């Protein structure tokens, strides 16, 4: 489990000030977490609108991250927003991916290979891939197919890749903090206004 | 006491509720198409891992296993996560190895081809969205969450080349669903702003869904999702009144996920039994799946030589009836019943002691193939003593089941005379 703590002193102070107006803080924390979730979901939805770099079929990666973003446990003192898709951590933190289950990682370099395992590409396109170049399956080798039109390279074979972190994977911290406080503020403002007017229970 | 607020903690972690939802499902192989599954009680659909027209239980096990690994962020023995592309590749591979590539070339690569990438993607994406959709819906039914975000909006979350009419016109699905359940606020807001907003507790969400569930996805490959609408916005839209508390509907909805003896008619029950046999049963007053029926019977039959149990596994399909008719055998309404003796006999002949040339020893999982072969044989021939011989190639292994008519008070029932498999010559 990876925890990204959005817990600046300013947010804490603001929320403590707001919370003093309530006997039960949980609904306010739910409002706050719900608004953070909505901010994250909108961010992921915007990211999903961008085409992938290779220009291949869309896998809607960011939409899947959006769907997995949920409000988790909410107590009287804390609220969680959970991103269930583990692949987000790799985007957020970056890091080295090493070939462990196979001899090499297959890195798509052709639009048709985007989001596809080599075995699926072979089956779907009716191709037979072979290793091209390099010594063995290490760096410098490729997975390619040969047709009458020539050789087409689909994957680079690597023992490991270093993925830089995506600085836009999540919204900037201040935006998340704003969402947290705005969610709580909006909720408090509303219930104060409601208490000043008449009303009913369903 | 000082109140310490640790706010907006963002976790990247599997959602336990989502994993639990997948684990609760029973893999079910069935020839039912999507439209037929939609007529099944929601309770049974929600608790089964099925895919339209896929009879092969092994494929459904692969689907469930893949979803569990995906949603549960599980690593393999080498510490590697299973990602979406891996699950899609596995489903296609197992389906292909199970001999499920359509014989009709026109169907290959289409959504009806379970070995195709398109179909596997549809299964994985729909099921993942349903799992997260349910978890989100459940969290949204929390009283405090409902107070803070009492409504939600149907929005487009993924682009599509061809878009269905959800809210583009007065004939769109949104207004149809709103009219069907009498949600006048949803109709009014759409008329005022073109937005598709309703209370989270409105029945419009179930009405909107092809699957009958109040959470997204509401249809296959729709590209639509939901976004929370705050209390402030809901008040401004006139969806709630000041100080109005919304009552969660989770309990009411969960009650619908129970099918009881009193709630299911005789005709519906007969239809289910014809299709699934004893794989569907009552547990107390509740209808439930019994997906491990044959495995349990196999274990018990071998562990206890005196065990005399039997299981009903559904009536003959139109295909089996059609293929048997020219041989002078009428299988109309014939029911498959497997007994513990059948299992012991086949196991003693063709289990570990299999000696036939090319013969492969039968395993526990092979006995699960018997109902599948009963429903969808490749060839049907006449055997000795009025027996019927069904053969099916399941991914390079040729299964042969010899069926015999059973003497039964309950009519036309058939059992296994023997079962064996071999690699085709």
Question: What is the total tally of β strands of chain A?
Answer: 9
Radius of gyration computed on alpha carbons of chain B: 25 Å
Average residue pLDDT of chain A: 86
Estimate the strand proportion of chain B.
Answer: 15-25%
In short:
Helices cover 40% and strands 23% of the residues of chain A.
Folded structure, characterized:
- The complex is a heterodimer of chains A (202) and B (425).
- With 202 residues, chain A is an alpha+beta fold.
- Chain A has helices at residues 9-19, 26-48, 61-67, 87-93, 118-125, 173-196; strands at 2-5, 69-74, 78-83, 95-98, 105-108, 130-132, 141-147, 150-158, 160-163.
- In chain A, a hairpin with a 2-residue loop joins strand 7 (141-147) and strand 8 (150-158).
- Chain B has 18 helices and 15 strands.
- In chain B, a hairpin with a 5-residue loop joins strand 12 and strand 13 (388-393).
- The chains are: A alpha+beta (202), B alpha+beta (425).
- At the A-B interface, strand 1, helix 1, helix 2, helix 3 and strand 2 of A face strand 1, helix 5, helix 6, helix 7 and strand 6 of B.
Question: Which key features would you list for this structure?
Answer:
heterodimer; A: 202 residues; alpha+beta; two-stranded antiparallel ribbon; B: 425 residues; seven-stranded mixed beta sheet; three-stranded antiparallel beta sheet; elongated
Please specify the SSE layout and strand pairing.
The complex is a heterodimer of chains A (202) and B (425).
Chain A: E1 2-5, H1 9-19, H2 26-48, H3 61-67, E2 69-74, E3 78-83, H4 87-93, E4 95-98, E5 105-108, H5 118-125, E6 130-132, E7 141-147, E8 150-158, E9 160-163, H6 173-196
Antiparallel strand pairs in A: 2-3, 4-9, 5-8, 6-7, 7-8
Chain B: E1 6-12, H1 16-23, E2 26-27, H2 34-38, H3 42-46, E3 48-49, H4 57-71, H5 84-97, H6 117-140, H7 143-148, E4 151-156, H8 173-181, H9 184-193, E5 197-199, H10 204-208, E6 224-229, H11 231-236, H12 250-256, H13 266-276, E7 280-283, E8 286-289, H14 293-303, E9 310-315, H15 318-324, E10 335-339, H16 340-350, E11 359-360, H17 364-367, H18 369-375, E12 379-382, E13 388-393, E14 398-405, E15 413-422
Parallel strand pairs in B: 2-3, 10-15
Antiparallel strand pairs in B: 4-5, 4-6, 7-8, 9-10, 11-15, 12-13, 13-14, 14-15
Helix pairs in contact in B: 1-4, 1-6, 4-5, 4-6, 5-6, 8-9, 14-16
């Amino acid at each position: 489990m990876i925890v990204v703590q959005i817990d600046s002193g300013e947010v804490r102070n603001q929320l403590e000030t707001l919370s003093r107006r309530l006997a039960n803080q949980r609904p306010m924390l739910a409002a706050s977490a719900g608004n953070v979730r909505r901010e994250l979901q909108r961010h992921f939805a915007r990211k999903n609108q961008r085409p992938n770099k290779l220009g291949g079929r869309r896998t809607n990666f960011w939409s899947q991250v959006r769907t997995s973003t949920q409000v988790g446990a909410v107590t009287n003192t804390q609220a969680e927003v959970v991103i269930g898709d583990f692949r987000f951590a790799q985007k957020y933190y970056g890091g080295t991916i090493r070939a462990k289950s196979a001899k090499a990682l297959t890195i798509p370099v052709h639009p048709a290979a985007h989001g596809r395992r080599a075995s699926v590409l072979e089956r779907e396109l009716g191709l037979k891939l072979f290793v091209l170049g390099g010594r063995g399956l290490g760096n410098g080798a490729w997975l390619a197919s040969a047709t009458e039109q020539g050789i087409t390279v689909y994957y680079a074979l690597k023992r490991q890749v270093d993925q830089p972190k995506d600085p836009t994977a999540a919204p900037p911290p201040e935006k998340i903090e704003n969402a947290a406080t705005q969610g709580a503020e909006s909720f408090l403002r509303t219930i104060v206004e409601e208490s000043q007017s008449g009303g009913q229970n369903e | 006491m000082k109140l310490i607020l640790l706010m907006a903690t963002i976790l990247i972690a599997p959602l336990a509720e989502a994993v639990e939802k997948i684990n609760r499902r029973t893999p079910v192989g069935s020839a039912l198409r999507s439209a037929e599954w939609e007529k099944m009680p929601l309770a049974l659909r929600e608790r089964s891992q099925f895919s339209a027209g896929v009879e092969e239980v092994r494929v459904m096990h692969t689907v469930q296993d893949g979803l569990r690994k995906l949603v549960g962020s599980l690593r393999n023995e080498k510490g590697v996560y299973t990602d979406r592309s891996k699950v899609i590749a596995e489903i296609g591979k197992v389906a292909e190895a199970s001999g499920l590539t359509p014989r009709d070339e026109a169907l290959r690569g289409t959504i009806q081809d379970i070995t195709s990438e398109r179909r596997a993607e549809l299964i994985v994406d729909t099921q993942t969205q349903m799992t997260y959709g349910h978890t989100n819906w459940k969290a949204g039914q929390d009283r405090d969450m409902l107070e803070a975000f009492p409504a939600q909006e149907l929005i487009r979350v993924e682009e599509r080349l061809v878009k269905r009419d959800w809210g583009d016109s007065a004939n769109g699905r949104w207004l149809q669903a709103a009219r069907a359940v009498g949600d006048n606020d949803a109709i009014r807001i759409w008329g005022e702003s073109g937005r598709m907003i309703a209370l989270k507790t409105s029945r419009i969400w179930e009405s909107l869904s092809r699957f009958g569930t109040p959470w997204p996805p509401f249809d296959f490959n729709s590209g639509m999702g939901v976004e929370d609408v705050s209390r402030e916005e809901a008040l401004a839209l006139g969806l709630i009144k000041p100080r109005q508390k919304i009552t969660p509907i989770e309990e009411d909805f969960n009650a619908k996920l129970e099918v009881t003896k009193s709630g299911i008619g005789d005709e519906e029950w007969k239809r289910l039994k014809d299709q699934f046999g004893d794989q569907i049963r009552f547990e107390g007053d509740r209808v439930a799946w019994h997906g491990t029926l044959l495995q349990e019977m196999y274990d018990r039959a071998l562990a206890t030589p005196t065990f005399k149990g039997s299981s009903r596994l559904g009536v003959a399909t139109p295909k089996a009836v059609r293929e048997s008719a020219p041989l002078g055998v009428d299988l109309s309404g014939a029911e498959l019943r497997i007994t513990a003796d059948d299992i012991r006999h086949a196991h003693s002949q063709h289990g570990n002691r299999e000696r036939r040339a090319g013969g492969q020893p039968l395993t526990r999982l092979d006995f699960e193939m018997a109902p599948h072969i009963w429903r969808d044989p490749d060839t049907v021939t006449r055997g000795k003593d009025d027996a019927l011989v069904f053969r099916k190639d399941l991914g390079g292994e040729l299964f042969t089941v010899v069926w015999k008519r059973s003497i039964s008070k309950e009519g036309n029932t058939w059992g296994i005379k023997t079962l064996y498999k071999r690699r085709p010559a």
